[in-house]
Amino acid sequence: MLFNPRQRAILRMVYRHGQVSRSSLHEQTGIRLNSIGEEATALLGRRVLRECDVQALGRGRPRVPLEIDSGARHVLGVAMSRGSVQIGRVSLTGKLVGEPISQSTRGGSAMLKIAVALLREHLDEDTLAVGLTAPGFIDLTTHEMLFSPTVPSGRSVSFQPIYDAAGRVPVALENDAVALAARWALTHRADAETGGDVLIVRLGDGRLGSTLLVNGRPNRGSVTGANELGHTRLPVEAPKCFCGQVGCLERICSTEFLSMRDGGGASLTERAGAYDGSDPGLNELLELLATGLSNAVNFTRVSRLVIAGELTACHTFMRALTDRVRVLTLHELERRLRVDLWDRTEAQPARIAASLVLAHMYTSRWATLMTVDGELQDTSLTLVGQVDAAPTVSMDG
User: Fold this and answer.
1) Which pLDDT does position 67 carry in this prediction?
2) Are 263 and 327 part of one and the same domain?
3) DSSP-based three-state secondary structure for 185
4) How much is the CA Rg of the chain, to the nearest whole Å?
5) How far, in Å, are 44, 167, 385 from residue 22 at the CA level?
6) CB within 8 A of 190, min separation 6: which ones?
7) Which string of DSSP letters, residue by residue, matches 255-271?
8) For residue 32, what are the contacts with CB-CB under 8 A and spacing of at least 6?
9) Domains: count for the chain
10) Residue 397's pLDDT is what?
């Protein structure tokens, strides 16, 4: 495994507090002090942690705080999407190291070849792990993309060449909407670690991805992918979806849908940015989108709905959308529902992909499926509370 449970508990505390001494780690985690010393030594040896300046606190042995080493190691994020592949280096504190590299592609085998070439170019001895994302359904046991808008033919695509290029470097593979939820868990750590069910929806022009977090962990279902809210079908005339059906919500949320209604040339983002309630086509789109979102809330009974993506910058439109979602949500659910707009979703998909690894390292509830030395490992099997023989102290501190 990338890190054992005790090491993850240490990393969480150091990431949370910035600098922590070994004795403080013992007090906050309940892990025996000898075990703290052994695991800290291992993490120092792997250049994941580093020692800070000595702190002299009165009498006794001076404390040597530990902190995340932001310069020695990095995570690579590889993000496949419709039309492009992006790779970027991300430090262990979550910051981009240089600018991500993007290359255009038509998808399918060409997309895979570009991803392999980029990975081989950027992978080095300082790469701790790789976060790999793609849209659609993914079989993590066979490393195959089963169904995706990036492959119009509908054929499955094997990611095995990427795993071969990574060699012994661990790889975390997920749908891109799940990776966005990992990013949310990192940036909203306090909220993510209190548990609760959250529906995260990313809105874009012709794109609608969603992930359901159940008690802070992604709902995986029978196959790894987004919770396909975008393929909720409504009985309206809309552009045909890549899935072969008509009426999919993500095709309703599009410039093409608006053009079908009134022939307008402005984009969805432009019209949403100028929204004042007088645009009939956009009003219809808003009503249909609110119907889909409220139905999802009614079905899942989440306590929190997070709407992300570029449309969140269209404040009047989003206010009207969220108000309408509340009207259409069952009353007993609506009064308990928190709706947030998350407008700080970085434009760099590679950084979001890298979040799959960082969420594994730093959040207690996130469960990552990661391939290490060719073996798929489920970190939910080694959760907090199983890290030491003295479990009376909560590992959440």
Assistant:
1) 95
2) yes
3) helix
4) 22
5) 12, 34, 19
6) none
7) HHHHHHHH---S-HHHH
8) 26, 388, 389, 390
9) 3
10) 30
- Lookup result for tokens 């950027």: 122
**How far, in Å, CA of 185 to CA of 359, rounded?**
7
The dihedrals phi and psi of 370, each to the nearest 5 degrees, come to -135, 140
pLDDT along the chain (397 residues), means of 10: 91 92 92 94 97 69 86 96 92 95 83 94 97 88 81 78 95 92 87 80 92 87 77 93 90 96 93 97 97 96 94 96 98 95 80 94 83 79 44 30
Helix ranges restricted to H, 53-197: 108-122, 160-166, 176-187, 189-193
- Give residue for tokens 């991805």: 209
- The continuous run of DSSP H or E covering 159 comes out as none
Residue 394 lies in a domain: no
Residue 381 included in any domain: no
CA distance 163 to 272: 41
Q: For the domain that residue 132 is a member of, what is the CATH number?
A: 3.30.420.40
As beta bridge partners, residue 171 has 130, 371
Burial of 88: CB neighbours in 10 Å, binned 0-12, 13-18, 19+ = buried
Q: Which pLDDT does position 390 carry in this prediction?
A: 36
Quick one: CA dihedral 265, 267, 268, 269, positive or negative?
negative
